[in-house]
């Protein structure tokens, strides 16, 4: 190092001395903000993150036979979370401020403690979390390609419940298996239980190409013996296939469930296929068996078009139809303004197979995830 | 720079080395706390803020004819918020922990995403926010001069609703105009709608003198055609005048509304005038068409006395009266202990014009805003 | 200082220059994270803290006569808080995300503003806070030795209410006395009031030895005169004794209450005794009249066994019994994995004195406090 650098170095110190300093009593800390806040010690011992998401939607739904014709400007999801870790233990506490689907302000979404001391191959998560079932379900609502998940995923995938899960991943595979309280957190009894598991494998996985295979299974017991017509057990599985090559991505899931009562068994199934093209050339990120949100490469943002077709038994509630055998098609356009902001449009149209009832929905969303 | 500074410089480095360092992986960050937390990148690209307010009130209300005589020690408002921005996009998520006026823990107050890319002349805010109507309404409940807003403001100003607003400001003027869901966020349908706008102009605006003029207008449609006595439309406007000169400040608003049903139109109006004197000599801050909280100049804090008189059609609920033609006077004393803490006392007395019923309220508040 | 240190010093500057800097516009700030976040100015003028707790419980309860036999995996407590201070004023806003005992997401726990300008001898706290009554009640639910407090504490100690308290402490003594709204925050009227006070004294207090004496008293008025059988007044007191010597700790409390109605007075009492041994040799921390959580000395964590016996009038709800004269014994094992994480097991068994009904509970907890 040359002597001539010394004055510069001292000038730098002088500048820092005019502003107040920020230091720690212990390990060095890295701080960052992109609208939220992250702090992590340089030695990896501890971290904390404050974040959340706001999704404002305009939607217009029309169902021709049921005389449904409504418009709404409403919050779709508003959540805050605090997450962090200390030593081998981590936590996440995420709650709603507002939600359009029944959750009230203050209600918990993710709410768990995780042990990471066995390494990436075997984490243990205790608490309210997503059951390991379904590619589209496990992809965050911030990151899915269309504004709403397919009706078949909504019907078959269990979503969040309280439980204990063992999960891990290698370079191109993941697994998760857990025991959950099927009636959801808050129920007084643990007798409604579920065992749920999922495995994924990516035989091809590079920066711009992915082949993803996955399968999930859940078996759910309802401990009710009074009414013979009541569901006593549900067994469901799914199969997942996804492909990414450069700006193109596609994914498909098949679901099959068998509901048992004392007097009969009911079998149902459904599937969706989806394809997307990122016009600005970015590649849809894939990590640990799920997809992430498109990250624009340039300041101008990224544009994406998405198509989805689904068919089978489902609750087509977005387009105003009931739980029926039917089919639905969706077209979406997304603009990713930056890493945190997404504007999306989607048009969905559905039809019941037996009655021929039809419905459609136009939806626009402004999303800030931090 | 002299060589003799070197040992000092190195000593400074040594000190910093004993404490852990705090750095970032990207842009430089400025951090600050005055009980809340702010972090902002030096390049202006991103920021985050964690803040809130706690207001604890003792109030004693007596309404002579209705035999109301109650005392209460209760939280008036307790809110937390996270706000931030990244690039041209900003957000605010503010929620109640407790509130005395019906909101429950977890309920949203501000909950919006804002686009700032067009500059200060045209911001676009989407989400739950205050409709641009009324000087006293738009001045934060942390910053109003008396502990409670006038009854006429409470009746005529729409307050927070979900919607989309375009707003901006120049050196001494502001405007805002938006389209809102009149029934409030959470209603299933968008058919109750409002258009609301406000303009303000300050022909005089210096550090210790302000003349403020403002006007707001709102038109609100209720899409209900079953009951002919139901309100179908409300049109309301207000006019604002405010003056600041040194430690003195005064403001007045006039409100006028016309409610239409199928069978009749009802016109009503009301006004308040308010004057305040900051005994310790500070000037009430004014910025972008609204007032801010008095900031004490000395460690001893700042003292203020405030008077308000109002008359007209309003819901005089603080003093135990109904929605009637009436009048109310209020006297307040405030002590601003520091930038964040305010102690306030107010006495309000009201009377119904027709029945002559009278009521009064004494209120004391301890407020910490961070 | 030797010249040879210069290149090192400059190298340190160079490294810091590659990473972004974190500075302040005002006073120096110390930042720290152990899963939560703390920032405090070096001059002591301001601070902010973001923290919380997550407690996930598995519990199995069996009550032999009532045919209760239930298992549950449920959140016991999930809370977030923001606390801070600026100048002589401090605040804390803590709210539930979920709770098993009736509180809903978003509901307030601690919610107060505190004046600290008179020094440690006389703080004034206004808002929702724990009334100063009972050693076990005032010890945080994160820090108590068994997973649940004794049934007698749960019955006799008032817990959190809105009010105003004066409290302080010296080197080995504390006091607190306050006026509270007995019906809890949120009630419309202030007529149900309580006066509550507590004093503690530690004649012996060193790093590994403590003798603690305490006494509390509360008198509570219910302003209801309609029903002569309704409780009109409750007066209760408690006496506390606690001992710590090295890894051993013990505590006992006696409670006595008199409930008055127009037609009769009812007197009841109860007590518990508890003893614990920290197998790994740490000493249970004691500060300002209450106990804190065991802090493991080594990376392997700390182990503790605890026994408790209680007898008297109480609501033995954890083991499925009613509010009765009875007795209950509890055995617990705790593993403190690090400063923030605690795993605990407890077994409780209770019996009603008159009917001889019996119940027991097994409980396991995973706790992350940050």
Keywords:
homotrimer; mainly beta; disordered N terminus
Explain what this protein looks like in three dimensions.
Three copies of one chain form a homotrimer. With 370 residues, chain A is mainly beta. Chain A is 6% helix and 59% strand. The first copy, chain A, has three helices and 21 strands. The first copy, chain A, has helices at 6-18, 135-138, 151-156, and strands at residues 20-24, 29-32, 37-41, 46-63, 68-86, 89-99, 108-115, 123-130, 160-169, 173-181, 193-206, 209-221, 233-245, 248-260, 265-278, 286-287, 290-291, 302-315, 323-336, 341-352, 358-369. In chain A, the strands form two sheets. A 16-stranded antiparallel beta barrel of chain A has the order 4-5-6-7-8-9-10-11-12-13-14-15-18-19-20-21. In chain A, strands 16-17 form a two-stranded antiparallel ribbon. In chain A, β18 and β19 (323-336) form a beta hairpin. The relative contact order of chain A is 0.13. Chains in contact: A-B, A-C, B-C. Chains A and C meet through α1, β1, β2, β3 and β4 of A and α1, β1, β2, β4 and β5 of C.
Largest interface by Cβ-Cβ < 8 Å: A-C, 60 and 56 residues
Give the oligomer, counting copies of the same chain as homo and different chains as hetero.
homotrimer
Distance between the termini of chain A: 41 Å
What string, H for helix and E for strand, traces the elements of chain A in order? HEEEEEEEEHHEEEEEEEEEEEEE
């Amino acid at each position: 190092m040359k002597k001539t650098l010394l004055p510069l170095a001292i000038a730098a110190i002088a500048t820092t001395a005019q502003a107040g300093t920020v230091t720690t009593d212990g390990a060095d800390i890295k701080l960052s903000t992109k609208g939220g806040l992250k702090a992590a010690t340089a030695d990896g011992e501890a971290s904390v993150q404050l974040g959340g998401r706001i999704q404002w939607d305009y939607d217009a739904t029309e169902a021709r036979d049921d005389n449904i014709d409504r418009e709404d400007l409403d919050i779709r999801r508003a959540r805050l979370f605090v997450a962090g870790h200390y030593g081998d233990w981590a936590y996440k506490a995420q709650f709603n401020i507002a939600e359009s689907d029944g959750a009230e302000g203050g209600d918990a979404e993710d709410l768990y403690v995780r042990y990471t001391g066995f390494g990436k191959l075997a984490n243990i998560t205790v608490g309210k979390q997503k059951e390991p079932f379904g590619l589209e379900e496990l992809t965050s609502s911030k990151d899915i390609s269309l504004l709403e998940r397919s009706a078949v995923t909504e019907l078959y995938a269990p979503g969040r419940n309280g439980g204990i899960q063992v999960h891990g991943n290698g370079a191109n595979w993941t697994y998760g298996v857990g025991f959950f309280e099927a009636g959801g957190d808050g129920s007084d009894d643990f007798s409604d239980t579920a065992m749920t598991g999922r495995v994924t494998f990516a035989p091809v996985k590079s920066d711009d190409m992915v082949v993803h295979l996955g399968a999930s299974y859940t078996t759910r017991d309802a401990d009710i013996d009074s009414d013979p017509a009541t569901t006593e057990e549900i067994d469901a599985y799914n199969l997942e296939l996804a492909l990414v090559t450069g700006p193109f991505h596609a994914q498909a899931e098949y679901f099959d469930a068998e509901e048992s009562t004392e007097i009969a068994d009911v079998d149902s199934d459904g599937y969706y296929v989806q394809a997307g093209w990122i016009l600005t050339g970015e590649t849809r990120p894939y990590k640990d068996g799920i997809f992430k949100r498109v990250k624009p490469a340039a300041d101008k943002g990224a544009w994406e078009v998405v198509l989805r077709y689904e068919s089978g038994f489902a609750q087509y509630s977005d387009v105003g139809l009931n739980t029926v055998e039917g089919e639905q098609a969706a077209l979406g356009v997304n603009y990713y303004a930056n890493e945190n902001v997404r504007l999306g449009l989607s048009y969905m149209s559905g039809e019941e197979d037996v009655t021929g009832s039809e419905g459609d929905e136009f939806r626009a969303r402004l999303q800030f995830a931090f």
